[in-house]
Amino acid sequence: MAAEKRTAIVLAAGQGKRMGTTVQKQFLELKGRPLICYTLDHFQSADCIDEIILVTGKEHIDYCRKEIVEAGGYTKVSKVIEGGAERYDSVYQGLLACEDTSYVFIQDGARIFSDEAILQRGWEQVQKLKSAVAAVPSKDTVKVVSGSDHLVESTPDRSTIWCIQTPQIFAYDRIRTAYDQIYTSDRAGITDDAMVLERFSEHKVYLFEASYRNIKITTPEDLLIAEAFLAL
What we know:
It is built from 7 helices and 11 strands. By secondary structure, the chain is an alpha/beta fold. The strands form 3 sheets. Strands 5-4-1-6-10-7-11 form a 7-stranded mixed beta sheet, with helices on both faces. The chain is globular and about 50 Å long.
């Protein structure tokens, strides 16, 4: 029986407008290295990853191939491909680029602390449940509001609230079938891959506990926090 192929789709096509810089956030340097390199390090060294598909903007493909993949020695990167206008467009292009994949790990390139321990925990779960989405229990009380005056409608029980991260790991056939359907339906409000499975399939989505350190670098303050984590 052939081994089950495990492909990581690493997203590096975001504009990073909230960072307030002309350089896309995944290419900003932290301690002298582009952020995307820290993410690729984990996937390159993880035993549960067979190959990596790097998704970026059309104008950055050559840069990623030469200055990131070749210069960094990321031998598991099999393809560097063009993404799309929205996150789900880039994920879909990554899914289309997979060949003979059994499981897919979908990862935000700017989430640089998804280490080997997190990847392994997710891998162990997805083999049993066919989905494994990284998350952590919310530390904060969450309010549901409506209207421009931010009127509070309700306060969910905090014990039921989890904050979603990446990697989001799925049996390939399940997530590909769900993604195939989004282009024939309303895509409004889709912010992560679990939502695609929730909305366009009957399959359940399961979470696994990742780490509060597994932040997505989105704002200048996040860079300071990431630098502090790297110093630990």
